[in-house]
Amino acid sequence: MTSESPLPTTAQTALRSEFGSNVQTNVPLAPHTTFRVGGTADWYVAARSANQLEAAVRIARNHDISWHLLGTGANVIVGDHGVRGLVIHNRARHTAIDRETHRLSAESGAILYPDLIETAVSAGLSGLEHYVGIPSTVGGALWQNLHFLSPPPERERTVFLEEVVHSAEVLTEEETRKTVGVEYFDFDYDYSILHDRDDIVLSATFQLEPGDRERMREIMDANLQWRAERHPPLDTEPSVGSIFKKIEGIGAGRLIDECGLKGTKIGGAMITHRHANIFVNADGATAADVCALIEHARDAVERETGYRLETEIDFVGEFAPPTDTTPTTVPKDPDLVSAEERAQRAG
Ligand SMILES: Cc1cc2nc3c(=O)[nH]c(=O)nc-3n(C[C@H](O)[C@H](O)[C@H](O)COP(=O)(O)OP(=O)(O)OC[C@H]3O[C@@H](n4cnc5c(N)ncnc54)[C@H](O)[C@@H]3O)c2cc1C
After folding, report:
1. Which of 210, 41, 14 is closest to 127 using CA atoms?
2. How far is CA 63 from the centre of its chain?
């Protein structure tokens, strides 16, 4: 579908008075997501400050327009038939450090890596360096309670973003702009209250600690190398990271691997040989290909192991049925060492 759905004239006027000629229609969203699939936004604005973000959301709500807030698009799959209504792209990226309190504040469109992490580490402030290499805005990271197995070399526990969140400014679903503490978010694994409430994070403040710059750089280098060895590179093999939620003590990737599904391809979407829980856009995939591959893997794992996998990503917009759901298998490059093989070798 290419023609934009009508937006009430009053909404168009309000958007144009806030965003001028930057209100766009029929904007392809694939380039704004890390999976690089999906259709167009009927209406699109990029918010370049927290105030603009608030204004866009208020306009959408006041005019009863359906809308979606997009960060770096690293945890969403956009449907091939695109998104009706308004897509608000969060480009509000202002940051500020308070050296006395060791707090780093950032508008919610600030990019975690390199922008925020480099700012913190250069100022000798520790707490965010674990998340190097993960594509995310501040808002997306709070939505998800960003997490990673760090610090190296032990990697004995998962660190969660909630550990360094001090407070945030939100626009609540009741239209109140207010500052809330970390407890407001009810953080859990892959969860924050943002999954259940239509609140928007406008900015966040992180409580960091003075740290040893050399140790922070060591963590960053080691974590980047860990990722490079196990994850497909985003520029040549676009993905959304892990597709399915972890099953405690078992691992979604391990189940997919045990079912022999690595290399399975439907249309242009493939389960990478590098990591069984990462699906890649191998070759002009559509969102329908990705969804068909997700269903194929989920059904096969349930049939063979009894576990029903749950996705950890957000599906946005309108989805089309796949044209061909016949799976094929792409053989593994014999030189490639997968994440699962590395884990087995490490014992
Ligand atoms: C290669 C790769 C590796 C990854 N590795 C990890 C990893 O190690 N650990 C991990 O936890 N995740 C990982 N991810 C997933 C992803 O990076 C995170 O989920 C990230 O936080 C998504 O942020 P985003 O800005 O792209 O959000 P988007 O994908 O744009 O949005 C995700 C959701 O958050 C909502 N949202 C965004 N901004 C706001 C806001 N300001 N207020 C309220 N809601 C908002 C959106 O509406 C949407 O529902 C990985 C992804 C990729 C592609």
Report:
1. 210
2. 28
Closest C-alpha to ligand 1, atom 21: 141
Fold type of domain 95-226 = 3.30.465
pLDDT tens digits for range 257-269: 999 999 999 999 9
Cα of 135 from ligand 1 centre, angstroms: 7
Does the predicted TM-score (pTM) go above 0.85? Answer: yes
* CA distance between the termini of the chain: 51
Residue having the nearest C-alpha atom to atom 53 of ligand 1: 240
208 Cα–ligand 1 center, Å: 21
pLDDT the model gives residue 60? 97
Say if CB 145 and CB 192 are below 8 A apart: yes
Give me the percent of the chain exceeding a pLDDT of 90. Answer: 89
Closest approach atom of ligand 1 to CA 135: 17
Residue 107 belongs to what H/E stretch?
strand 103-107
Give 344 or 214, the one with higher predicted confidence: 214
Provide the pairing of β-strand 40-47 with 83-90.
parallel
**Domain 9-90, classified CATH 3.30.43.10, yes or no:** yes
Tell me how many degrees the CA angle 57-61-64 measures, rounded to the nearest 5: 140
Tokens 């559509």 belong to residue:
286
Best of 143, 172, 193, 237 for a ligand 1 pocket test (most atoms within 8 Å of beta carbon): 143
Question: In degrees rounded to 5, what are phi and psi of residue 87?
Answer: -100, 125
| Domain boundaries 233-345, CATH class | alpha beta
Domain ranges in the chain are 9-90, 95-226, 233-345
203 lines ligand 1 (CB under 6 A): no
How far are the Cα atoms of 5, 13, 32, 70, 337 from residue 16, in angstroms, in the given order?
17, 5, 22, 20, 52
| pLDDT at site 11 | 95
Residue 112 has pLDDT above 70, yes or no: yes
